[in-house]
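Shipment paperwork, digital attachment
Item: protein structure file
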Amino acid sequence: METGIIDFKKQKFIRDCIEYLKTGNAEAELRAIVNSATPEYIEYIKKDIDKDTIIIIDTVIKKIRLSSQKKITGSRQKINIIALATLEKLSTDDIRFEIKEVTERYRETINPVKALYYDLQEIMFLYDGKPKNKHHKFLIDKFSDKKSFDDIIVAVDRDILDLKECRERIIKIREELGFANKSEYYKQVIDLHNEMLQWKRLFEKFPEWVEENTNTQGGGLYQTLKNFFCGED
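Attachment content:
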């Protein structure tokens, strides 16, 4: 029975190839099979069939793969343009968020809000009852209440929404193409979206952490990590 099913699929593939050469229209299933087929599978399809049919299969495979490659290139360019347009217009990448004492510790092109995230994370995770240095104390004093993060969180929220919408547009393009299309810029969109969710969480938690560690002995590194990643019980 298994052989019968496989033969049926093989015959359908051959019929679809013949139909494609007649009409120039390839069904999504035929494109998917051709674009994902291994050399071994192609050899299996060609096994025990006449020479004319083999020529048809080879012609169809060549045409569809060439057409698909053009679509991949075109869609990749479109994806990169959409992704770059979002990545280059981030609300958080604004000079008004730059804190010289923070950004000077990192590469010149770093997003200032990302730099702040790194510094506050360092403070929270290394704190053991007192600031490690003057820089830590400076930031604790500056961001000790929730209002100090209002504008930053508004910008982060705006970027998260823009990145999410960008991701959805790109997913739609990939679905229309019919198979995955790799793009480094798309990966950057996904990664940054996930990172910003962590930024926001830390910015919301930091004033609470300052209050807890100012008014009490705090819970140490273990409790800080637990509260941040797991939430409080």
